[in-house]
Design a protein that fits this description.
Structural class: mainly alpha
Radius of gyration: 23 Å
Distance between the termini: 48 Å
Number of strands: 4
Oligomer: single chain
Strand content: 5-15%
Mean pLDDT: 84
Largest sheet: 2 strands, antiparallel
């Protein structure tokens, strides 16, 4: 169930003239509530209570439920993108949710965001670690035109996003272009020992892309595709580390 909360009032959307401001104010924004309801019901309320109580003592079990829900959502987003012909509707990162809840209730109540009982997961507040790649410094260099973004960087990221979302066919097609772009753009920057692995990936990646045109990938082809994307990521990581040095 998808629901938009806190949408701007229509009368505010119809404003025709610019509004004079003395200061920049924070603009309220709508949020989306996504509720995934298991089609298999509990046999009775006691079973539901026992399940939730057991989940309280196993936070990893609850997080696994949330991860499963995000995977379902990641499969729904391409359908939304295609149905609305919206090229800007992309995946959500695992930590995008403002609030994550696990609970139970009747179908109609759950559709309205109401539970018989539920647990709200604490947000992960892991301390950001300083990366040797110095992403902020590189970001500044890119904005200042002291460095440029390679086309293959974006292509590899897209292939990774497709893989993580379970879209192996799209990942295979994306990876073929990403690999050719990486080999052409980075050229002599790639160490000989690393170039050999990348070059060797051309065959499996090409075969995976051809298979993707016909249907789903075999488990073996999907595994080779993941290895190839990981090698491309490693090559780009080495380049970023060299840039940060």
């Amino acid at each position: 169930m998808l629901r938009t909360l806190g949408a701007p009032q229509r009368r505010l959307l119809n404003r025709r003239r610019a509004r004079r401001l003395a200061e920049s104010e924070a603009e309220p924004v709508p949020t989306s509530r996504v509720t995934l309801i298991d089609p298999e019901p509990f046999p009775d309320s006691e079973a539901a209570e026992s399940w939730l109580e057991a989940s309280r003592d196993e936070p990893e079990r609850m997080r696994a439920k949330v991860s499963d829900a995000l995977m379902v959502l990641s499969r729904a987003l391409p359908a939304h993108r295609a149905a609305h012909a919206d090229p800007y509707a992309w995946d959500l990162p695992p930590d995008a949710a403002l609030v994550s809840r696990v609970g139970y209730g009747s179908g109609e109540a759950l559709a309205e965001g109401q539970y018989a009982d539920a647990l709200e997961l604490p947000r992960n507040r892991e301390r950001a670690k300083r990366s040797m790649e110095a992403p902020e410094e590189r970001f500044a260099a890119l904005l200042g035109a002291r460095e440029t973004v390679l086309a293959c960087e974006d292509l590899v990221l897209r292939a990774r996003a497709d893989l993580d979302a379970g879209r192996e066919r799209q990942a295979a097609l994306q990876a073929r272009v990403a690999l050719e772009s990486l080999l052409a753009e980075m050229g002599g920057e790639i160490r000989d020992d690393r170039r050999g692995g990348l070059e060797a990936g051309r065959g499996p990646v090409g075969e995976a892309a051809n298979a993707a045109l016909r249907g789903d990938l075999s488990p073996a082809a999907a595994e080779e595709l993941r290895d190839a994307v990981a090698r491309m990521e490693a090559a780009l990581r080495v380049r970023r580390l060299g840039s940060a040095a």
